[in-house]
Write a structure and sequence with these properties.
Shape: globular
Oligomer: single chain
Helix content: under 10%
Largest sheet: 17 strands, mixed
Strand content: over 45%
Number of domains: 2
Radius of gyration: 22 Å
Number of helices: 1
Number of strands: 35
Low-confidence stretches: 1-26, 201-234, 254-259
């Protein structure tokens, strides 16, 4: 059974906390809400409820109930959790003092619904300090990303690394891309080929509403062109007119062999297909790319980011090559770019980086990256910086100017420092998304490092 935290607080502290609209005194703040759509609420152990909105705190001991809405949480150790509609997720016991000193812990319960998570620092040093419990089984951390759905049974798909699923009947280790099904608490977890599917956002008329069209105008209320897919704030929907950028290892299908690989990127306009909350495929005329094993995707409804472990690319229906560890950002483009003014963008999401020397063996990053963008729309320039921890070192780069062309931009071509780099270079491809260029996404490649070509993707918001 999932654990329950019992708290004792004074009447004065309770009244003060309720008046301030903040977590109760004695309940440690665990993180904040990246976004919340619909009637998302936090319920304390004593049953008291409060609404949650973007920027609001969540506390150890609280249960998050999404109702017909959706929410994304960011914990203080860098972990991110995306909650689907009709989900109840409880923060049983969370503690993080800013560093992994052995006292950190993250014990959670999924009471019903579906979640996708990218884990943070908690559990990296001691995996016994992290678990997600359901009545059917408990999920222990051995990797960094996984998805879970829970009704009367559970389905768990590991994105990266491995996770352990256990109940009274036994345990099962899941490696990258593998899925477990657990029928009940007394039935041993088993492997299955059916991936965990996070329910897609509700369509108009069923729960959350899509933006309404403005009569006599060709844009929606949030400025999205009527000809483009209109997405509820918690997810993106299939259609044409998306912007995409990615970095990946491209390996030739024929002839196979050593040296038949390259690290490269794609940036442009695309038709995107979403399934189970993630990007399933994209195309540009005769070029089509289909996912293999998805690690997962997070989104704020305007821009989304994620990684595929592998993928296949076709040209005119004919297999062209395979893609490994494809990092991508996809989003609704900016209908009209600003032509004046400046803006600063902060990092809202990223993929954990990967690196390779030979296109076969990979090094995986497990720590949060850092980054920022400063845009001068009048001059058409994008300055930026990235700090990427991987392989026990942090690789950093910054570029003073990057040229904006339409809604896309480039940067990099500048030196990378850290990790014993000599002659290391960065290459950046990006685009703006949303009304008034409210979002930006980029993919990056660092070449010439001791661990090979480093790749990843990041999303930013004004």
């Amino acid at each position: 059974m999932p654990n329950t935290i019992k708290l004792r607080i004074s009447g004065a502290a309770l009244l003060a906390a309720l008046a301030a609209g903040i977590p109760l005194d004695g309940m440690a703040t665990a993180g904040r809400i990246d976004f919340a759509v619909g009637d998302v609420r936090a319920l304390a152990a004593d049953g008291r409820s409060r609404p949650l909105a973007r920027g609001g705190d969540v506390a150890s001991g609280e249960m998050i109930d999404t109702g017909n809405g959706r929410a994304q949480l960011r914990f203080s150790d860098g972990a991110q959790v995306s909650l689907a509609p009709q989900t109840q997720f409880r923060i049983d016991d969370y503690k993080f003092a800013g560093q992994a000193d052995g006292s950190e812990k993250g014990f959670f319960s999924l009471l019903k619904g579906a979640m996708r998570t990218i884990t943070g620092v908690v559990g990296r040093r001691n995996r016994d300090n992290y678990r997600v419990s359901t009545i059917v089984a408990t999920i222990g951390i051995r990797g960094t990303e996984f998805s879970v759905t829970y009704g009367n049974s559970i389905s768990v798909t590991t994105g990266e690394g491995s996770n352990e699923v256990c109940n009274a009947a036994g345990c099962l280790i899941l490696n990258s891309g593998e899925t477990a099904f657990v029928a009940d608490s007394n039935t041993r977890p088993v492997m299955t080929d059916k991936k965990t599917e996070i329910p897609p956002p509700p369509v108009q008329g069923r729960g959350l509403q899509l933006p309404e069209y403005v009569a006599g105008d060709n844009v929606t209320q949030d400025g999205t062109p009527a000809g483009l897919p209109s997405s509820p704030p918690a997810g993106l929907t299939s259609g044409a007119g998306y912007s995409i950028t990615l970095s990946s290892v491209f390996s030739s299908i024929s002839p196979p062999g050593a040296g038949q690989w390259s690290a490269d990127g794609i940036t442009g306009s695309t038709t995107a297909t979403f399934s189970g909350g993630g990007l399933a495929a994209f195309s540009d005329g005769p070029m089509e790319v289909f996912q293999g094993a998805p690690v997962g995707m997070l989104s704020d409804g305007i821009i989304g980011w994620g990684r595929w472990i592998d993928a296949s690319r076709l040209l005119g229906g004919t297999p062209l090559d395979t893609l490994q560890h494809t990092h991508y950002v996809v989003g609704l483009p900016t209908p009209v770019m600003p032509t004046s003014g400046t803006a600063n963008f902060t990092l809202i999401g990223y993929t954990f980086p990967t690196a390779t020397l030979d296109g076969v063996n990979f090094t995986f990053g497990t720590q949060p990256i850092t980054g920022s963008l400063a845009v001068d729309f009048g001059a058409g320039n994008v300055a930026g910086s990235l700090g990427v921890p991987i392989g026990g070192n942090t690789y950093s780069t910054s570029w003073p100017t990057g040229t904006i062309t339409g809604t896309v931009f480039g940067g990099g071509g500048t030196a990378v420092t850290g990790g014993g780099c000599t002659g290391c270079w960065s290459y950046i491809n990006g685009f703006f998304a949303g009304a008034n260029a409210s979002r930006a996404g980029l993919s990056y490649m660092f070449t010439g490092t001791p661990i090979g070509t480093i790749m990843g993707a990041a999303a930013f918001s004004q």
